[in-house]
Design goal:
- By secondary structure, the protein is an alpha/beta fold.
- The protein has two domains: 253 residues, tm_1862 like domain (pyruvate-formate lyase- activating enzyme), CATH 3.80.30.20; 74 residues, Arc Repressor Mutant, subunit A (Orthogonal Bundle), CATH 1.10.10.
- The strands form four sheets. A nine-stranded mixed sheet has the order 9-10-8-7-6-5-4-1-11, sandwiched between helices. Strands 12-13-14 form a three-stranded antiparallel sheet, with no helix packed on it. A three-stranded antiparallel sheet has the order 15-17-16.
- The two termini are 40 Å apart.
- The structure holds iron/sulfur cluster.
Length: 381
């Protein structure tokens, strides 16, 4: 059977964070969330036949804030998932959670529904930074949520943190990092703050208050070093895990494997086609009611030329610490990496790209400027 990933987007948050450009709406009304779960259930039923020969070995509830769902909605959602899709007995089933939205009853319900991985957004150790980011929680809310999740048996937890926040010093970020390491989660994701258009930060943050590039670089390099010494393998630009605890669902995205997503704004890759749903909850729910799916094909495999396939392969593989196996590349594309991308040599010489055991991969300093290097080697050849 074909193995697929299943992603469900829950487009609701208690309140929007000041830096967030994900598609989610501020919502405190349980009724609106329940209506959305009803719509998803209808869509699952309508589409389940498309996946009858597939098994889902990862399920990811993302958002938004999926931990806002009430216990009853969690049960309804998982029963709709299991009624309509073939979920592998050993599937990795993850949920994104925000401190302050979970209690013992919800955690028990999630565990009994089969959720076995939790990703908790901490972002910072400092309440002042959390307030600046517009987060709904404090450090003590996080403490309570994390302990409760552990005591309810969750033994595969990711903690999300951020760096390069306005007015943040390197020592501040390292305090957040030390705190997280002390908690010993199985996985840590650490993202550099980007000021995106259409967010409150775009209007309110003075660029001068952001750590300069040298400080950001030091934060990143120190982080990679500290996490490596603390037993975390860096397996992607922003992701670190204990042995065997890579996020299997996210690996599907980075390895260009198939996944099917539901919810407004959600993207899928299935049968050689990349498609997405309109990022508008009202349109999405209305279209399901009318029996029409708000579906847009982004790219069909037939439309992708050989060079684009090669570029995409390099972009995805170099995100991962495993990098590109040079022999695999030559087998796939009939040309060596150095012939296809001659500019890569200068980055090997400068130590931004490492060549060992027949593979090419970014070093930590290479990861820090990976966007720049990728655009140089891919688009200047
Ligand atoms: S909780 Fe997450 S999805 Fe919701 S607004 Fe904040 S960053 Fe965005």
């Amino acid at each position: 059977m074909r193995a697929l990933g299943l992603y469900i987007h829950i487009p609701f948050c208690k309140r929007k964070c000041n830096y967030c450009d994900f598609y989610s709406l501020s919502c405190t009304q349980g009724a609106q969330i329940s209506e959305y779960i009803n719509s998803l259930s209808v869509q699952f039923k309508t589409q389940s036949h498309l996946f009858s020969d597939c098994v889902f070995d990862t399920v990811f509830l993302g958002g938004g804030t999926p931990s806002l769902l009430s216990p009853n909605d969690i049960l309804r959602l998982f029963s709709a998932i299991r009624e309509n899709f073939n979920i592998d007995d050993n599937a990795e089933i993850s949920i994104e959670a925000n401190p302050g939205t979970l209690n013992k009853e919800k955690l028990t319900t999630l565990r009994d529904a089969g959720v076995n991985r939790m990703s908790i957004g901490l972002q910072s150790y400092f309440d002042s930074e959390l307030e600046l980011l517009g987060r709904i929680h404090t450090l003590s809310d996080f403490e309570r949520t994390f302990s409760l999740a552990r005591s309810e048996g969750f033994d595969n937890i990711n903690i999300d943190i951020m760096y390069a926040l306005p007015n943040q010093k390197k020592a501040d970020f390292l305090k957040t990092l030390d705190y997280v390491v002390e908690k010993s989660p199985e996985h840590i994701s650490s993202y550099c703050l980007k000021i995106e258009k259409n967010t409150p930060f775009f209007k309110t943050v003075n660029p001068v208050s952001l750590p300069n590039e040298d400080t950001q670089y030091e934060m990143y390099i120190d982080m990679c070093d500290i996490l490596s010494k603390s037993g975390y393998e860096q397996y992607e630009i922003s992701n670190f895990s204990k042995m065997g605890k890579r996020c299997k669902h996210n690996m599907k995205y980075w390895l260009s494997q198939e996944y099917v997503s539901f919810g407004p704004g959600a993207h899928s890759y299935f049968n050689g086609e990349r498609y997405s749903y309109s990022p508008n909850l009202h349109d999405y729910v209305s279209a399901i009611k009318d029996g029409k799916l708000p579906y847009a094909i982004i790219q069909e495999s037939a439309d992708i030329g050989e060079n684009e396939k090669r570029d995409e392969y390099v972009m995805l593989k170099l995100r991962l610490c495993d990098g590109i196996c040079e022999a695999d590349f030559k087998n796939l594309f009939g040309i060596s990496v150095a012939e296809a991308y001659p500019d890569i040599e200068k980055y090997i010489k400068s130590g931004h790209v490492l060549r060992y055991n027949g593979a090419l991969r970014f070093s930590s300093k290479g990861f820090f400027v990976s966007n720049y290097i990728l655009s140089d080697i891919l688009f200047n050849n």
